[in-house]
Amino acid sequence: MQHKCKVTVLDKKLYPELQAQYCADPHAGPCPCYHVGDEYIFERYGQVDDFWHLGTGTLVNGADRRDGTAGSPGVPHCSEAWDAVSRYIYTALQGGGVMRGWMNDERVMIACCSDGTRPVIFKIERLDYKALYIDGIGCEGDQERIAAALEALPGVTGTAFRETFAEVYLDRDVPDETLRQAVETRGACTVTKID
Predict the structure, then answer these.
(1) pLDDT tens across 120-168, in order?
(2) Which residue of 40, 75, 140, 154 is surrounded by the most CB atoms within 10 Å?
């Protein structure tokens, strides 16, 4: 099984009375690095290792922004936020329990940056998946049929097709043979490898 980490900006807070009293710029305002609803996907697979690049280029929605949003191309995450969330991201990428016993799902953690006048609140999620290498996919229709067959299986929450493999997202372990059969009963496709 492979693992990714999804980070979502849930909320931003602002304490103007604290900024007015303590900040060099008493009107600094809310954090400019993140926007509510921003989503980031961290991967460690093959040649990709987003963690060691401080999340540069991990922004998946809002990536068309050119305003210095953290995680956009060429922009790492804010050091205050990175300090608060990086240990959870790393744990998720390794397949560990992000916050066992505290959250109702050990794959999830809610955390915030340490900026006391304008904190940003994040949801950190471990995404579990298997990579299926499939020969014989000829068109988008094949992908749709394979996705439908896989997503009908208990434990499969979604699929995504990459250039050389399909990612099958799971909420629990699904045996490789079950995944293989679901794909191969859909036509002339053959699963050559499962990671």
Answers:
(1) 999 999 999 999 999 988 777 788 999 999 999 999 999 999 888 899 9
(2) 40
Amino acid making up residue 48: V
Single-letter amino acid code for the residue at 78:
C
Q: Give all strands (DSSP E) within 13-107, no chain letters.
A: 39-42, 44-45, 48-49, 59-61
- Model's pTM, two decimal places? 0.88
Please state, as a whole number, how many other Cβ atoms lie within 10 Å of the Cβ of residue 66. Answer: 9
Do the beta carbons of residue 124 and residue 5 sit within 8 Å?
Answer: yes
SS3 80: helix
DSSP conformation letters of 94-157: TT--SSTTTSSSTTEEEEE-S-SSS-EEEEEEEEEEEEEEEE---SHHHHHHHHHHHHTSTTEE
| Burial (0-12, 13-18, 19+ Cβ within 10 Å), 181 | middle
What are the per-10-residue average pLDDT scores of the chain (195 residues)? 95 97 96 94 88 91 72 91 95 90 92 96 96 84 90 95 91 95 86 94
Is residue 112 within 8 Å of residue 80, measured between CB atoms? no
Phi-psi domain of 95 (left: phi exceeds 0; alpha: psi -120 through 50; beta: other): left
